[in-house]
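Justification of resources, computational component.

The compute hours requested in this renewal are based largely on the per-chain cost of generating structure records like the one below. Each record pairs the submitted sequence with a full structure-token output. That output is archived, and it is also reused by downstream analysis tasks.
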Amino acid sequence: MAVSNRAKVEKMTYIVNENCIKCKFTDCVEVCPVDCFYEGENMLVIHPDECIDCGVCEPECPVDAIKADTEPALEKWLELNREYAEKWPNITTKKEAPADADKYRDEKGKFDKYFVDKPGEGD
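The structure output for this chain reads:
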């Protein structure tokens, strides 16, 4: 019996982290070829099962909120993205960022201070 040397290939995905909270720039949704972004009241998430790992969204984010899930310590964000992508409405078109987005751009610890699980409007 032959033994395969091929390892199981894990699908990579991108996730949105807390940098998005209260900034919610939507430049990323405009370039996504598979429309895998979902909108919460004050942040976006990526559906990890729909993301095709193309990476075009990552450089579009002005607050560096989109990361490959292969980066260290992102398990919490992968699960959060998965959970809320199932609950929140799909967003496929760019919208205006919140008027005070720049105020929160560089703030740390935004998840504990500001995260809300309410859905956004979507398209």
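Residues 60 and 120 are 21 Å apart (CA to CA). The helical segments are 27-31, 75-85, 101-104, 110-114.
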